[in-house]
Amino acid sequence: MNSIDLKDRCAIVTGGAQGFGLAIVKRFIESGAKVIIWDKDEEILNQIDLENCIKLIVDVTSFDSVSQGLKSGLDKLGKIDILVNNAGIAGPSFKTWNYPNDEWQKVIDIDLTGVFYCCKAVVPHMRKQNYGRIINISSIAGKEG
């Protein structure tokens, strides 16, 4: 039984091609939403075959890519009601003093900057339509040190 009503709602789910993201996509569709999956993995995106689902290759670490993904989504659906910032990586496990700088930057770019870019792009459209919901997914890994 599905008690969530998302009829006529349009959502973006970042990192939505697999794992938790794909589960969120499926639940939103079951609840009546139209969903845009943003993911950078074209091969995995091409394996997804769902109704009421648009698949776009978007790299959340690039504001240009996010902006283009938003434009494409708005062109297709006309609005964005829900943004789920799900894209993320845990990165490798190292002692702080041994953590490679390039790996650290990759985690920051995806997990922090990516969320910022997506919100920065989408929020003005939500404000204009006087409606919007943002869900930011995080990880317990942030507590480890």
TrEMBL record:
SUPFAM superfamilies: NAD(P)-binding Rossmann-fold domains. It holds the Pfam family adh_short. Belongs to the short-chain dehydrogenases/reductases (SDR) family. This is 3-oxoacyl-ACP reductase. It comes from marine metagenome.
